[in-house]
Specification:
The chain is an alpha+beta fold and 144 residues long. Helix content is 36%, strand content 12%.
């Protein structure tokens, strides 16, 4: 039987430190990878990646992405921060406008795109939750 580490290593392709290492296993709607490995419980793959290098994560702390790719598990693209740090990082990168309404063309582009939630969120300057609502045909996101 494979160890947690061996199973984890099977679920992504390692590139250079500059590249995103895209998680190939199960993902949430928001594009975050999930790994079943810690005491048989699911954990976000980027958090597991962080823990392999840095050890346990203090309760209440976030593992944030410098690359803004929720599917990336490259430890050199991750940093430890509070919820406030994560929010400020998002705002500083121009992702603080998730209340922006989308036009019909943008909605169709999002629905037809093969890009992940993080890429679309960055491209259209809306939250990944908005991208999810567009793809699932739910909620309010349309400019009238």
């Amino acid at each position: 039987m494979k160890s947690n580490l061996e199973r984890f290593l099977d679920k992504f392709v390692k590139g250079s430190d500059d590249e995103c290492w895209e998680w190939l296993g199960a993902k949430s709607r928001g594009g975050y990878g999930y790994f079943c490995g810690v005491d048989g419980k699911n954990i976000k793959a980027h958090r597991f990646s962080w823990m392999l290098i840095h050890g346990e994560i203090t309760i209440g702390m976030c593992i944030c992405h410098t690359c803004d790719n929720t599917g990336c598990i490259n430890p050199s693209h991750l940093f430890l921060g509070t919820i406030l740090d994560n929010m400020l990082d998002k705002i500083n990168k121009g992702h603080g406008s998730e209340n922006r309404l989308l036009n019909d063309t943008e909605i169709q582009e999002i629905r037809n795109s093969s890009k992940n939630y993080a890429e679309l969120s960055k491209l259209y300057k809306v939250s990944s939750a908005t991208i999810d609502r567009v793809r699932m045909h739910k909620g309010s996101y349309k400019d009238k």
